[in-house]
Amino acid sequence: MSLIPPSEVFPPPERLLLGPGPSQVHPRVLAAMALPLVGHLDPSFVALMDETKRMLRAVFGTTNELTIPISGTGSAGLEAAIVNLVEPGDEVVIGVNGVFGTRLADVAERAGAVVVRAEAPWGEIVPAETIAAALGRTKKPRLLVLVHAETSTGVRQPLEDACRLAHEHDALFVIDCVTSLGGCPVDVDRLGVDAAYSGTQKCLSCPPGLAPITFGPRAVARLRARTRKVQSWYLDLTMLEKYWGEERVYHHTAPISMNYALYEALRVTLEEGLEARFTRHRRNHEALVAGLDALGLTMAVAPERRLWMLNSVRVPAGVDDAAVRRALLEEDRIEIGGGLGPLKGRTWRIGLMGESSTGDNVRRLLAALGRILPRHGLACDAGAGVAAAARVYAAE
Ligand SMILES: *Cc1c(COP(=O)(O)O)cnc(C)c1O
């Protein structure tokens, strides 16, 4: 066997990414990643870091000084938020209604926290009463952590009441906005969020590899008041802030090309404008839902709780989840996601994130489903989905 791999392996095939992330990447971002490297302390790179922090603040809706990209995917942002704010023995309340709340609880327990779960069924929000009851079971809760956009279920978690409850208990309010940032309003300062983290490959439409994070004054005060070192050396914000701040102290070699990519992705985002970007995500979501409905499919989440960027659809009875996804990939080069955990085999997850959220992509997917579904046991009018989506676009 030759040492050189066969050509089917690389370069990658053409795909339209309509799953739970990564999303389509803008050509300007791909081009940025192909540029020559500079050193991680080069004056030009330092200028890029400063502009990145400025743009990230705009996207998060914050004036927080400590707003930087963590090197690593969204999970690194998750872990950074927890390990910097938790000391062993701290009580932490976590909303658990999907994969990412479950992951947060796991990470917090590994960091030595006493985790109190505010649980709700997958596919529903965590109600304010459940959060209040969980806080009531603690003596001195350090954090309340909620997932704003639960990508495993397609649910958007309301934040206002939870934020008030957290602050009434003198706990910091922390949110996971990995999937929501850049696709719907996050508004860290307006809501009173103390810390938030995200990822690059969802609605920011950048490859996976960085995790934007922001710490407000109360979170920074907690960081300064720690009695022990942060458990993780790599994710220790007290050291990372010295590289991203005025001192420019070497910590680890910044992933240069990833930072080029995020810089360009943030420019693309802000050139479009956040409001326009949110409107685009909402419109394409509405058109997709109308089209899916016309094909006889049912959404898995109540209308007022649905995410615009992640659409959970029930797999109809008698239809083979994996066979339909395989046909979409092989015939139409479209990737959508399957269900996770208790929803495995029961839902499809259609992502319309960032660059993936376009009218053309909505029509392309609906046309493909209209053609493929009848062969897999769901009788439908093949053109009905595209026609219903067209009516939504025409109505505006
Ligand atoms: C994708 C995602 C993460 C984890 O991000 P990775 O980049 O996969 O590490 C965390 N939280 C939510 C809500 C996500 O959608």
**Count of helix runs:** 14
Give me the Rg, rounded: 22 Å
CATH topology of the largest domain: Aspartate Aminotransferase, domain 2
Which small-molecule ligands are present, each listed once? Answer: pyridoxal-5'-phosphate
User: Can you give the helix content as a percent range?
Assistant: 40-55%
Briefly note the structural class of the backbone.
Answer: alpha/beta
Mean of all residue-level pLDDT scores: 97
- The best one-word shape is globular
Order of helices and strands: EHHEHEHEHEEEHEHEEHHHHEHEEEHH
Strand order of the largest sheet: 2-10-9-8-5-3-4
The counted number of beta strands is 14
Give the secondary structure arrangement, pairings included.
Layout: E1 16-17, H1 27-33, H2 43-60, E2 66-71, H3 74-85, E3 91-96, H4 99-110, E4 114-119, H5 128-136, E5 141-147, E6 149-150, E7 155-156, H6 160-168, E8 172-176, H7 188-191, E9 195-197, E10 210-215, H8 217-224, H9 237-244, H10 256-272, H11 274-294, E11 310-314, H12 321-332, E12 334-335, E13 337-338, E14 347-351, H13 359-372, H14 384-394
Parallel strand pairs: 1-12, 3-4, 3-5, 5-8, 8-9
Antiparallel strand pairs: 2-10, 6-7, 9-10, 11-14, 13-14
The chain binds pyridoxal-5'-phosphate.
The site of pyridoxal-5'-phosphate has 14 residues, from helix 3.
